[in-house]
Amino acid sequence: FVLIAGSANLDFVVRASHVPAPGETVLGRELHTFPGGKGANQAIACARAGGAATRMLLALGEDAYAEPIERSLRDAGVELLIRRSREHATGTAFICVSDEGENAITVAPGANATLRGEDLPELNEVSHLLLQLESPLDAVEAWARRARAAGVRVVLNAAPAQALPASLLDCVDLLIVNEGELAAITGIADDCDAALARVGVANVVVTLGARGCRARIDGEYLQQPAFTVQALDTTAAGDTFCGTLVAALAAGTAFADALRRACAASALACTRLGAQTSVPAHNEVQALLHT
Ligand code: ADP
């Protein structure tokens, strides 16, 4: 099965005429709460894609914010390994969205910051471990090292963007990044193929928004155009891409086909509002792939 270790948050979203400047108070409209966090979003995408059983290691507080997060993951069919923190609240994100679609986001990682290297469970029967950078970097590196040593395929979505130590990249079989993250890792912003070759990981995928994605797989370049959709909200498009790609690879799908499937699922996610609520089901992706 696929194991995801990473973040889960409850997102508090308020729309307002504009994002407040420092010191300013803005009266917004209704409060909406959505389960989010890159780890949880990707776990849901992986489970909805079908083809591989999905488990997630996550940390939550002992508070009311944990409940909707757990429910969303369980409803999608994700099996949960929860580290419960007494001292820290469940992770939260406070998001103000302006009428122009600009946003300002403050994340309180809370319990997510308490995950440790030793929290990773037994890796028997795990084919792929999917990681992001919303967990402590030393824990991410410890998980990647242990999985690599156990023969598990290590997939890292290096988001949010930051420079990464070679000691972490050395344990990664597949790196998934967007253009900004690729530039943060390689220092190359203007030459995609040069950046893909510079990374030093055998398999790298860069997502290109409405242009689809490009990959360097064992030295060979692959290109997959995006599916044309009416984009409404691109939140969690990248997470949908990651979870769908890993589910397809875990099911034995060839790389080029898995990229096509990931682009189809993430395009559908762009047509719907929200994060986890916008992740499409397997049959919807099938329908788009066969149009
Ligand atoms: P992130 O949101 O992590 O920055 P991208 O913007 O690169 O990631 O989007 C991830 C994937 O979502 C892309 O590879 C593409 O397949 C899909 N996608 C994003 N925006 C669009 C769009 N406007 N139309 C169709 N597909 C899109």
From TrEMBL:
Active site as annotated: 239 (proton acceptor)
Pathway(s) served: Carbohydrate metabolism; D-ribose degradation; D-ribose 5-phosphate from beta-D-ribopyranose: step 2/2
Keyword DNA damage: no
Record's cofactor remark: Requires a divalent cation, most likely magnesium in vivo, as an electrophilic catalyst to aid phosphoryl group transfer. It is the chelate of the metal and the nucleotide that is the actual substrate.
CDD domains: ribokinase
Keyword set, alphabetical order: ATP-binding, Carbohydrate metabolism, Cytoplasm, Kinase, Magnesium, Metal-binding, Nucleotide-binding, Potassium, Transferase
Catalytic activity, EC: 2.7.1.15
Binding residue positions for ATP: 178, 207-212, 238-239
UniProt-listed Pfam families: PfkB (PF00294)
Regulation acting on activity, per entry: Activated by a monovalent cation that binds near, but not in, the active site. The most likely occupant of the site in vivo is potassium. Ion binding induces a conformational change that may alter substrate affinity.
Domain Carbohydrate kinase PfkB: from-to ranges: 1-281
Amino-acid positions noted as binding K(+) in the UniProt annotation, renumbered to this chain: 233, 235, 269, 272, 274, 278
Binding site for substrate: 9-11, 37-41, 134, 239
Cofactors required: Mg(2+)
Compartments reported by the entry: Cytoplasm
Catalytic activity: D-ribose + ATP = D-ribose 5-phosphate + ADP + H(+)
Keyword Acetylation among UniProt keywords: no
InterPro entries, alphabetized: PfkB_dom (IPR011611), Ribo/fructo_kinase (IPR002139), Ribokinase (IPR011877), Ribokinase-like (IPR029056)
Assigned protein family: Belongs to the carbohydrate kinase PfkB family. Ribokinase subfamily.
HAMAP family: Ribokinase
Record's function text: Catalyzes the phosphorylation of ribose at O-5 in a reaction requiring ATP and magnesium. The resulting D-ribose-5-phosphate can then be used either for sythesis of nucleotides, histidine, and tryptophan, or as a component of the pentose phosphate pathway.
Protein name in UniProt: Ribokinase
